[in-house]
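idk why but the lab printer keeps eating my pages so im just putting this in chat instead. protein + EPU:
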Amino acid sequence: MEKFVINGGKPLVGSVHISGAKNAAVAILPAVLLADGPCVIENLPEISDVSTLLRAIKQLGADVRAVNKSTVEINPIPANTFVIDKKMAEGMRASSYFLGALLGRHNRARVAPPGGCDFGVRPIDQHIKGFEALGAKVIIENGMVDARASVLRGCSVYLDVVSVGATINIMLAAAKARGLTVIENAAREPHIVDLANFLNSMGANIMGAGTSVIKIRGVEHLHGTNYSIIPDQIEAGTYMVAAAATGGDVLIENVIPKHLESIIAKLEEAGAEITEYDEAVRVKMTGRPKCCNVKTMPHPGFPTDMQPQFATLLAVADGTSIVTEGVWDNRFRYMEKLISMGAKVRVDGKTAVITGVEKLTSAPVAAVDLRAGAAMIIAGLMAEGTTEVESIIYIDRGYENVAEKFQKLGADIKRVPIINKETAYKNA
Ligand code: EPU
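predcted complex ->
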């Protein structure tokens, strides 16, 4: 086990290169199973969610070959099973995408319910509604979700909630179904568009991705392809907020500024100076952040995956801010850690009222989930003194080389092994 040790109080200065998008990668990798030939996927982030998925794809029988650290070649032809067991599924949310991909490939999928970050109940009823509309029979037995169909037929599905996962899963299952599938009230996140572009590059016929109505005309075959994943909007947003929170000046490179609009708007409201370039944004902050209110919403609203990082910036803002979580039931579990660092926060259900303090002070904290972990790093970079962040396994799920990237910006952050006191004593 490891932890981050951070000596805070230094402004971040310099440039940082953003990796491929986690939430696009974790949809595109299972989608490879729909192809009739090898696929080369580039700009994969080097994170543990990707390595877990690649292990699962290998376990299904596919050939997986690393071309370099961000490129992989996958030949799905030998993949002959349709089962993802509990051990493989429990570590990540995206394992549910094997349901859509395997159903599309074999008309059969048996996948343990997904794990991933804990934000309260994470149902998959809308995924199942979509599979059933396509003609599959879905049962949950012995802790496994089992979906089977004799044939998948195009259908019309209206999502009762805007769900990224359900939109992706239905696209995967419908890409080779017979006829036209229409998803209404679909999610519009950049990674939905990236998946559609990937599937279309294999010969799929998908229109409307990025709007709330997606039309998928099923095709018989999908061929192999070469595809490069979009940059990670949330990784970019995390470094943008960290730059502002430390009173820094950082150029965030390899981004699509259009994907960052809501984050840019809120950072400007908080007093940051933002310059947009074709494939980069510069964030500069002088003085104390201003308070502002934020409500998270599906894209193009302010992303829930930026809520903990942005709330951490607001913890030192001048005045009182209200943060409302509009996507998940319980995404404020990290607030108690921030409070232990001196933040003044009152949480009432899905709302947090944050009264800015001048400074945070160091404390031993832990990542309670991936983005909350990123928020703890930002808090440590802002705070006076030495902050230790434990449970960083969550952070490694979604941020490539996070300590190295922050070090390059001048941060004093180190990854160090956690020495169990009892073992250390015995070994002494
Ligand atoms: N929901 C349902 N029924 C469903 C599916 C979702 O009620 O069948 C509800 C959820 O309970 C939630 C809302 O709909 O209240 C949105 O959930 P969604 O399905 O959009 O979330 P997800 O697909 O499970 C993805 C990202 C999350 C991100 C959310 C929202 C991946 C692998 N995960 O999750 O990312 O928070 O969309 O944008 O794409 C992260 O990267 O840290 C992360 C948690």
